[in-house]
Every structure is written in C-alpha cells, then in structure tokens.
Automatic annotation (TrEMBL):
Keywords: Electron transport, Membrane, Mitochondrion, Mitochondrion inner membrane, Respiratory chain, Transmembrane, Transmembrane helix, Transport. The keyword Zinc does not apply. Pfam families: MWFE. GO terms for cellular component: mitochondrial inner membrane. It comes from Brassica napus (Rape). The chain crosses the membrane at residues 12-29. This is NADH dehydrogenase [ubiquinone] 1 alpha subcomplex subunit 1. Coiled coil: none annotated. Belongs to the complex I NDUFA1 subunit family. It is a single-pass membrane protein.
Length: 37
C-alpha cells in the first residue's frame, strides 16, 4: 500500500463515514416522526 493511495483514501473514508452516519440519523428521525403520526 503506497502512501499516496493512503492519503487519497483517508478523506474519502471520512466523507463516506459522515454520509453513512447522516443517512442513518435521517432514517431514524424519519421513522420516529412517522411512528408518532
């Protein structure tokens, strides 16, 4: 594994993780909202 590949993959991994967390929280908020109504 080269250092350049690691430096390129690290920001992508962080962005991907943030998108995954945001998507999961939106899903649970949406589910909770419709569960109440």
């Amino acid at each position: 594994m080269s250092l350049v590949w690691l430096e390129a993959a690290l920001p992508l991994g962080i962005i991907g993780g943030m998108l995954c967390i945001m998507g999961n929280s939106q899903y649970y908020i949406h589910k909770a909202y419709h569960g109440r109504v």
